[in-house]
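Let's do one together. I've listed all components of the complex below, 1216 residues spread over three lines.
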Amino acid sequence: MSLKNVMENWSAYRKDAEAGGHHTYEHRWAMSINLDLCIGCNACSTACYAENNLAVVGPERFAKGQAMHWMRIERYWDVEDKEYPDQGASFLPMMCQQCGAATCEPVCPVAATYHTPDGLNAQVYNRCIGSRYCSNNCPFRVRYFNFYSYYESAWPEPMHLQLNPDLSVRDKGVMEKCTFCVQRIRVAKDKAKIENRKVKDGEFTTACAQACPTSAIVFGDTMDPESKVSMLWKQHQVTRAVYKQHKEDPELRGYRIFEELNVDPSVMYLERVRDTTV
Amino acid sequence: MSGKLNRRDFLKALGLGGTATLAGCDMPTTVTLEEGKEDVVSYLLPEEYVIPGVGVTYASTCTQCNAGCGVHGRVREGRVLKVEGHPDSPINAGKTCQMGQALVQAHYNPDRIKSPMVREGGSLVPATWEKAQALLDEKLGSKANLAAGRVAWLTGTVSGHQRALITNHLESVGSNHHFAVEVVNTNVWSAVSRDMLDDPQPQISLDKAKLILSFGADFMGTWQSPVHFAGQFSRMRTAADRGALIQVESKMSMTGGSADLWVAIRPGTEGILALGLANYLIANGVSSASLPGDARDKLAAYDMQKVSNATGVSTATIERIGKALKNRAPSVVLAGAAVEGQVNGYEAVSAIMLLNVMLGNIGQTILPSGKFPLQQLEAKVGGTRDLAAFAQAAAQKQFDVVLVHGANPVFTAPASLKLDEALASVPFKVVMTQFPDETAMMADLVLPVSSTLEDWGTHVAAYQAGASNISIQQPLMEPLYDQTRGFGDIVISMLAMRNAAQYGSFKDYYGYLRNVFANLKGAGATASLSPDEFWNNSLQAGMIKIDSTPRKHTVKASIAAIDAPAADANFPLTLIPSARMGLFDGRHANLPWLQESPDQIAKVVWGSWAEIHPSTASKMGITHGDVIRIESEAGGIEARAYLTNTVHADAIAVPLGQGHTEYGRYAKGRGVNPLKIVKAAVDAKTGELALFATRVKVSKTNKNEIILRLGHSDTQHGRRLVRTVSVDALKRTKGA
Amino acid sequence: MVQWIRTRMFRKYAHGAFHPVSLGVALILAWSMMTSTGFAADVQPPGGVHKGVDVEQPIEFPHNIHVEVNKINCMYCHTYARRSKVAGIPPTSKCMGCHKIIATDKPRIQKLTEYWQKGESPKWKKVHDVPDFVHFTHERHLKKFVFDRDYPVEDVKEVCAFCHGQIKEMTVAKKVKPLNMGWCAGCHEKNGGPGDCWKCHK
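Okay, and this is what the predicted structure of the assembly comes out as:
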């Protein structure tokens, strides 16, 4: 059935995305991550564990690639054949890119992952049957599967008291991933609605952006033209719903990873800078 | 239409399964939709600002390291859920590091000690507080027969009123032995700053620098005030004229990973390179007017070729660094633990500070600090000199009673100091701690203290970033266990035993603080406040601003010759026991978030490893994952070899953090502690241990094991996930 | 089947919250409800019933006396409802505020006073519950159905009754509405509530 779903919807789905998306969006949450500022310190990643009830899986399961780090810092080296890496490391904070045309969505046989009117890739744990198609179809490898009932061991008493009641603790057989801290979005939107106003830029942010000691991560709504993240996207002439950017100034540093796959990621990275003149 | 919504009852828990929950429908419970199965308990008396289901934020201070960052704790239904940075803190400006994020895990740690323990028949057994207090009274109370100087306190870096109380307690028992021990410190840097600038903690302004030359200072990871410096670094990078970072070290630190130019240097030769650079600068027209008269002659001995031979840094690279220093002003030159931790650490740091003097950085990027007016509250800064001094004094049977708090010296002391034996010989050892660490396991009396999030405290960071402050630590929730006590409460009770007239009237540490805060109320805006108003305002702000008198920098530069560490054919490599943001000196090894958080450079989790350069490894036939034996004159450890070119070919790096023999389920029995095989050499001038000067030899065992790490690819395979541009491109786009 | 789930989900955002057919049904229902509850056509209280069990509480709290006889507003005691996602159980001090003086001869009040004097709160049994994976907020619902519509706050019990039934007629509360997803979603559809899964699933 799922294959049929993919086949029938694929081209319409793609075309929709290229035409600016098929949703009437309320918000489009997005990020800008300045790789020149990322120092690879893991503050974001640990903040994510704290905010999102991420299970610590322990060494045995980590060895099998079952760690649940929604946000991880990848580290790459530039050149292999040098005696020493004289330009330091390349750090890459990697989490769900909340693609506008996500490859994870159409393959879900039960619509547990879908696109929200906020431009997020939602994961509805209750719907998920654990087929893991989404994870296998994600080019970023940012979906994490609960192979075990981690709640049985990951929060021995009284550690469970730290669990954030604003989101679920996931059990065995469910896929999970970065949500752009949807629980914070929810609170902010509720608050704004109660006060009959729009959500203000900067009135809340994601756990990672809040922690980031160098402020490398900027989070906001690209539908708000005044938001910091909108300005950054504009400044770097990065637009959505394209698989190749057509910049007036091609040297501007903004880019999206795997954009060429036409997935329309919501995270813009700014190129790392190295001063080779010192 | 029945109530059986729990078709998916896999979403078991938000915790608290089945127990009473507080005031509302939104508390974590086992999923049950059956009516009448779960308890809800309302508040007895409501606090006006506490609304169930809505988080309340309280200000406090992080104690995960000694930087003293302000935090905001989010509290809901009486539980602390998360800490964030305090936006108004001049230290961290709303940001946190990963250790700060894990503050809640130290609080909710399942391995906390839940009641006092007394040694009976050789083993520690749980006891009541009455019994513990009686024991304290017997050994330290008014009737105790204490000769002068027979009591010692052994702590980590301690400041604020906790420090004042310790001082007072020592006074009350007729002693002045307060040992403060920290393995991660900047004491040699401070000593040099004090001698050369008349300022032990000069303010560093990285954001004003156009160039940072850091000799192994991991200033965004472990050096002085990492979150503060990360913020400065961010501003330096985003300035219109982007500042650059040159990092010179033998093992790449987290900060080194962000370098524009990373230079591997032979261990222990950083000072020589600094002198070589000074020589280069003079030869290339930088004025030596600020230097002593004989500077030119002394420096002339450090010609480029000689320096290159000694340091292993190519002449081209030396020239490159020299040019950068000359052309980019202001710069700032820093020295880190690997430079300090040598037998001539003082001289090496002096040579590095000399560059700051020559380049005119003093007054530009190195600024005078404020003199904190309340001396009794100033940080008693820990170091490794006290580690050795304590071991020696205890071995000489100088103490009858030792009180330990905020330190785990049995874990951090090199085996060669024989600190454990010395401590064992002390007749009565009291350890005040949250966790069953190695030192606690040796105690005669273990007193379980409250966590940071349950306790009162005041802190004065040794490195006062920006303005002078007393940071306030306040309880964010009720203690989890009724048999734990606040540290201040314990000391107050001990003081009352000796000096009832002065301390008997304080019910607890809170009462004491309320009392002393009345005196902290300064002039100006706070003068008109009532004591209660001042107290409440201070708690809300999380800090009290203190007017300090600015110091004046008077430069007294000196130059001493620096020799390279002697080669040793039997021990060809130098051991680098590197600390890192995360597990730090091992104190955070019991926090599962940090255990599972990869080392920033090696990306290893949950264990120890030994970083060795591929060229060195290939000579010995060592491959990745081989278990190797690393031996010094002081002992040996085994670890898995991690082949990487982020370590100098003459060095082997074994990160700190693991190797706990106690310390709870997450830490115990995992990996090795490189400090154990460090030879007890000291920096001659300061007496600090030369932690980075131990020579080792490496041999293979016949085992090969998997090194657990994040990701299995070190390269991007041409995918350009992280794209790098040159700074020229950045300039053309005007810094965008 | 799968096709259906997908298109239905997406269409909801593409064409607004109302499905033309359900809109028609809603209007008819609205009209019929209007005559019975006095609500204007803009609100469609959810239907559905649930046969709840009788829950034994530590004190048999008579909602009916408080609401019907003494005309106390629901939000006087469940004061958090308009400020938080949870309505909350009133603090014991609130009970004692009145019952230090009123009805002190009644066994229930004597039991309450015992709790108060011991410095304890009664352990109430939870009656209305949604699963932990559900984000439900009283605040937003009150805002929409009471404050935004200028619905008389003194009649708020009629709005509370949407989900809690006629509590005013009960002693201890009893669950009489299903409070399950289909039921919630039905009401959202009728009243233009959000249809996004993530609005409620957390």
